[in-house]
Amino acid sequence: MTDEAIIELYFLRNEDAIRESDTKYGAYCHAIAENILKSGADAEECVNDTWMRAWLAIPPQRPRVLKLFFARITRNLSFNRHRELTADKRGRGELDVVLDELEYCIGTSDVDEHIEAEALGESINRFLAALDVRERSVFLRRYFYAEPIGVIAARYGLRSGNVSTILSRTRKKLRAHLQREGYIV
């Protein structure tokens, strides 16, 4: 089923919209949640919550890219779930490391507040569009999908050290870009 047909089901308030969304994008959303949460049960819960959030958001919203709309919802729900699960724990997981790495670029300890700002998001999108395909893909795999460096290395046939170097250089470029645009003093 096409994305436009699925969106139309949401607008018609037809519950098949959820079934079709799960059929087409369930595995994709589950992979995002699993990368962040490292738990199949928690990932499944986030994906189910994604469909509920989509049901509540469409209408009035009409997503331009349905896959990315679902990805953003799943990602945000997964981050929130991760925070709940680790609020009182001392151990640091992969997600904590990913957020710490991004904190360097953005220059604040409240990464979520800045990432959600629309203007900053547009600036980051311009930055990403200017990167070459591999550099952009590695960066997104790490910081959007929260994939471990070893997984990214295997995906692109690189050594982990090469991926770490690419990420370090890209973070420095992002920091410089954000400084030029006035987000970092």
Task: Describe, in plain words, how this protein is organized in 3D.
The chain has 185 residues and is mostly helical. It is 77% helix and 0% strand. The chain has two domains: 3-86, Rna Polymerase Sigma Factor, Chain: A; 94-180, Arc Repressor Mutant, subunit A. The chain is built from ten helices and no strands. Helix 2 crosses helix 3 (40-57), helix 3 (40-57) packs across helix 4 and helix 5 packs parallel to helix 10 (160-180). The protein starts with a helix and ends in a 5-residue tail after the last helix.
In a nutshell, what does this entry contain?
This protein is mainly alpha-helical and 185 residues long. Helices cover 77% and strands 0% of the residues.
Task: Pick out its properties.
185 residues; Rna Polymerase Sigma Factor, Chain: A; single chain; mainly alpha; Arc Repressor Mutant, subunit A; globular; 2 domains
Structural class: mainly alpha
The share of residues in helices is: over 70%
Tell me what the CATH architecture of the largest domain is. Answer: Orthogonal Bundle
* Dominant shape: globular
* Count of distinct strands: 0
Encode the helix/strand succession as letters.
HHHHHHHHHH
Main sheet characteristics: none
Topology-level CATH name of the largest domain: Arc Repressor Mutant, subunit A
Distance between the termini: 48 Å
**Mean pLDDT score:** 85
CATH C-level class of the largest domain is: Mainly Alpha
The number of distinct helices, counting runs of at least 4 residues, comes to 10
Radius of gyration: 17 Å
